[in-house]
Amino acid sequence: MAFIETPVYLIFVLSIVLFLSEWASRKPRFRAFGIALLVLVLGAVFSNVGLLPSQANPTYDFIFEYVAPASLFLMLLDVNLTQLKKTGLPILILFLLGSLGTVLGVFTATLIIKDGPLFEGLYPALAGMLAGTYTGGSINFNAVALHYRVMDQGLVYTSAVAADNVVTTLWFFVTIAVPVFLGRWFPLKKLKPQNPNAGDSHEEGKIEIVEDDSAHLNIQSLSLWIGLSALGLLLTAILTDFFRTQNWNIPGMIVITTLALLLAQIPLLHRQKGNMFLGSWGVYLFLAVVGAFCDFSALGAAGALALLLLGFIGITMLGHGLVVFLGCYLLKYDWDMAAIASQANVGGGTTAMALAKNFGRNELILPSILIGSLGNALGTYLGFMVAGLL
Fold first, then answer.
1. Among 52, 66, 205, 287, which is disulfide-ready with 292 (CB 3.0 to 4.6 Å)?
2. Domain total in the chain
3. For 55, which DSSP code?
4. Could you tell me where the beta strands, DSSP code E, fall in the chain?
5. What is the pLDDT tens value at each position of the chain, 390 positions in all?
6. Which residues lie below 8 Å from residue 332, measured CB to CB, with a gap of 6+?
7. Cα angle, residue 65 at apex, residues 62 and 70 outer, rounded to 5°
């Protein structure tokens, strides 16, 4: 084994990639890119200058097979579906309409932008990844990518992430502007969540704590999360093998997602924190390896591929937006609420919460977080459905 492929060297260099990416993401010049994209780019840079191998090796395989699924499993443990009763029916309906619009938009995009050699045989997987991420978020994007080994084609994966990053950023500004524009021409009365306690200061305080749980990692919680993720991987392997003997073609990522969602409903687990922080670290490690597979010499093809992906995502978002905002108008709901529900689909609970704050709708802060969690629960299933149908 060459020195550059030894596990201790690779973990050392990959850790440097994560360290530098986190440092850069805090600087005003790079903050807009986000740490995920910075990790991908730095991983690619390190690979192309010879500091990281650009081909498969046992350490990379371990990260793909164990670290990445375990990290997604840990992040899904925050999806407490019992809290959905606090959202109120209108914003929940708008969120589900947005999910439907995303799926319809993806299928519409497949009719306009056809499969081709630039997609490297990954066209159905990419469609599923986009359906997943615009229902829930990056958790679902990566769950579909892992099953279909999209990261083995580093250029395809990196182009998809870059295109997604651009459109997600633009959509935040769209959801700020659309309620103002539509409210001027088609005024609708602002609605309140059905739960009167949804926006009180006590609940808002809870939300703020959830945003960063790194301080809660200790020996007890770290042992719990590592042990639980190992158990999740073990049960997934056992169940997947059983399903295979029954001729049921159920992807392992669907199995581990379902296990995580079932465990997430146990109240005892919510008293322990740190799973999101640990899961995020594992996902960033996975992204650094994906970046290492990206060959800069093929960037000419990436330009054409990126344009195709941007077109595909643009059509998807048009379908999503038409369904959620037209549904809002027909149901006589609330333009702000529709924009927040849409943002929960596209950007996740955090950006939806930011949008609620921007509109001064404090009563919608908690519902925005909760429907964002619902998106994480639904996204993987819808992503695999789309990929399977294609």
1. 52
2. 1
3. S
4. none
5. 578 889 999 999 999 999 999 999 888 888 766 777 788 788 888 988 889 987 778 898 898 888 888 887 888 787 777 776 766 788 899 999 999 999 999 999 999 999 988 888 899 999 999 999 999 887 889 889 988 988 888 778 888 887 887 788 788 888 888 888 888 888 777 766 655 444 443 333 333 333 455 556 788 888 999 999 999 999 999 998 898 888 887 778 788 888 888 888 888 887 778 888 888 898 888 878 877 876 665 555 567 888 899 899 999 999 999 999 999 999 988 899 999 999 899 987 767 877 887 787 877 877 887 788 788 888 989 999 999 998
6. 188, 189
7. 105
In eight-state DSSP terms, residue 26 is T
Residue type for 331, please? L
What's the rounded Cα separation, in Å, for the pair 133 and 380?
8
Structure tokens at 121: 């045989």
DSSP class of 263: H
Residue reference for tokens 């950007």:
347
Q: How many helices (H) and strands (E) does the chain have?
A: 17, 0
Please give the single-letter amino acid code of residue 292. A
Q: Do the Cβ atoms of 73 and 229 come closer than 8 Å?
A: yes
Domain span at residue 260 reads: 3-389
Tokens standing for residue 369: 């977080």
Length of the chain: 390
